[in-house]
């Protein structure tokens, strides 16, 4: 095995890189997808060209354009964002207790069987790389405390043969220096190291542990390896808290004078239990102003399309500074990130609480049990036999059946990604698991995906697509060719005209969502004024209406005779108070065999009626109107949205 430590001090960058390429291929994980299988051989023999296509020879450029594959639809959301960057939390454990991240006593840890095993992480990485993910970052908790972190990185590193270009680590640096060399040999290309202070005593206050010297050792070792040509991209992450370490912003900038590193100042973000407080957050603008006083020539550096960081540079300095502005300037428009939590949930947005369990789908191929090394080896053997044509067509294809299901679920989750996350004023009131923690009470879609669906009984799709269109015919609708061709038909009316419950026993279980809305219009400004001042005799009208809407959604089958009971996984009801109205919007999600439009309509109408009830003493002329479904997704008919 070649080792970077054997490199002569002045080894060329190219040489170091070629050594890294060699070691990258040392371990070969099982290759799962059909698409990957088809292209793997070609990729093995022809390393991917990562250079800018504009600098290539015309013939090579033409070839690379011909080879270019369209980006996976599974990883493309409805806003055309292509997700080629995957962050995986590989442990919940940590050897520090940073004040902005964790309570002093730590966080309750999940039972180990709930966490992803190493083969499971490798399998999921493999699936994502097969669909076009080119960058994987391992994070946590503290990833370096995972016992088998190096073998894990070796196996993920081997995915470079299948399109992975960057393997990165976010770490507190405490024990990195001990594992760094083997990690670089495994294919590590970038490190984000957390360091919030340059003062050892302050370090102990902010992390509640000793360890400043160890972090220093890790930084020094990275820089030393880079001088030898390792080419590891090093960034220092510094969370800035007012009154805690804000006086260190300038010393950190000074550090970039001689060191070729990037210091990234992170706006302090709220997570469950971190006692976030707006006053403690130092904004991007404030930090920039502070730096400009000392360095008025500070220059903006052109950021790359998907950068979360806004990068700046003091002319003449070796390094750069950046700002992660999640709180004041979101970068949602170009977000290309997906996250997998330690327990195997896919999170499409750091600040969203919708999650789906990929672990459960993966484990279906192992009778629901965690996939350990032995099970993984058996699966690999099946896959290898299949590749060599040794298996009969009836032989199970190892992971392949799961991979198809995984991709469906991943695709649906990605398509549900919102345009942007909430901002200050909302984020701090939202439930969101701490960066490192599993929060079993968070309102998630977790546990509602395929694992649990097989026991569901049937539910009914109340309105057919075309019926829906007629119901809301005052609003122009998108039409499909199919709609034009088929006469409208009520699904819950039998041949003889009797009402009946439609059997949906043969329908597939899919993730479904529906949003309904309506408006309560007041006849004067009295009621909205009292709601705003929270002076209604009956109390908080909007709060009560929200709860009423949620309760009603869950009771829908008790109220609407032909509705099947559905295991609703999430209901959200939003009420927006205007000058003379309340706009109600209810969204219901489930994993089931039929849609949730009726649940959404019931939630919205009940919330509106509750507002009516709470205001009727002061306004007799209220009108509730415009009740309609505005969005429906999932199932065979796919996405439908009211124009
Ligand atoms: N333990 C590793 C580390 O500290 O780098 C990796 C996990 S840590 C959760 C990942 C990153 O999140 C770190 O850079 C940390 O500084 C940042 N972070 C944690 N809590 C934060 C908060 N409340 N606001 C902003 N950044 C935070
Ligand atoms: Fe641990 Fe990282 Fe959180 Fe600090 S920020 S407590 S090092 S996980």
UniProtKB/TrEMBL annotation:
One protein family per Pfam: Mob_synth_C
Cofactor: [4Fe-4S] cluster
Chain intervals for the UniProt region annotation (Disordered): 41-65, 462-491
Positions of the Radical SAM core domain: 78-305
Reaction(s) the record says it catalyses: (8S)-3',8-cyclo-7,8-dihydroguanosine 5'-triphosphate = cyclic pyranopterin phosphate + diphosphate; GTP + AH2 + S-adenosyl-L-methionine = (8S)-3',8-cyclo-7,8-dihydroguanosine 5'-triphosphate + 5'-deoxyadenosine + L-methionine + A + H(+)
SUPFAM superfamilies: Molybdenum cofactor biosynthesis protein C, MoaC (SSF55040), Radical SAM enzymes (SSF102114)
Pathway(s) this gene product operates in, as recorded in its UniProt entry: Cofactor biosynthesis; molybdopterin biosynthesis
GO biological process terms held by the UniProt record: Mo-molybdopterin cofactor biosynthetic process
Protein keywords: 4Fe-4S, GTP-binding, Iron, Iron-sulfur, Lyase, Metal-binding, Mitochondrion, Molybdenum cofactor biosynthesis, Nucleotide-binding, S-adenosyl-L-methionine
GO MF annotation list: 4 iron, 4 sulfur cluster binding; cyclic pyranopterin monophosphate synthase activity; GTP 3',8'-cyclase activity; GTP binding; metal ion binding
Family, as annotated: In the C-terminal section; belongs to the MoaC family.
Protein name: Radical SAM core domain-containing protein
